[in-house]
Amino acid sequence: MNNKRIYILNGHPAQKxxxxxxxxxxxxxxxxxxxxxxxxxxxxxxxxSDYGFAGYTTYKPLEPVLEKVLNDLEWCExxxxxxxxxxxxxxxxxxxxxxxxxxxxxxxxxQVTKFGIPSPMLAGRTARVIVTSDTPNLFxxxxxxxxxxxxxxxxxxxxIGFKPTRIIQFSGASHAKPAAVERWLKQVRKIGASxx
Length: 196
Description:
Elements: E1 5-10, H1 18-32, E2 36-41, H2 64-75, E3 78-84, H3 92-101, E4 108-114, E5 117-120, E6 125-133, H4 137-142, H5 147-160, E7 162-171, H6 178-193
């Protein structure tokens, strides 16, 4: 197995979270398997999450932490991100990171299009997203049609070139029993060892 450059982004805005614990388990296993790992935590990042403009003719200069996110995305071969599911979507600060940092000329090219869709600038990379939620997986599929999964796969990471984007969801996260958490940590550790 070839060693990979893996960028790990903890997308939970709190200092302590299940999302963070899961990613630390992944990171430990990936390092032990010989992969090169860079890890960042949303809770450590200070930036204005409000894009604040219409269109792309004007935008705010990126804060250093957002520049670092972009540099790490360019550096990596594989992205691993965790996020809680809040009100059917991503936490506001995580969405703000995408709103601010995912700009034309950095992650997609509006000058080169196919059927009117800009070309991705980070092609050739893969992604894994770990979602924690209270919504049962069956409800996510049947009632909500896995909407946030489609957003992450197609409209965010797929749009900039990360394919495939694999998603794993752990439900009942807010009041999970220790045995369930331990099972999830082991599952994520196994995924981390294979860098998938």
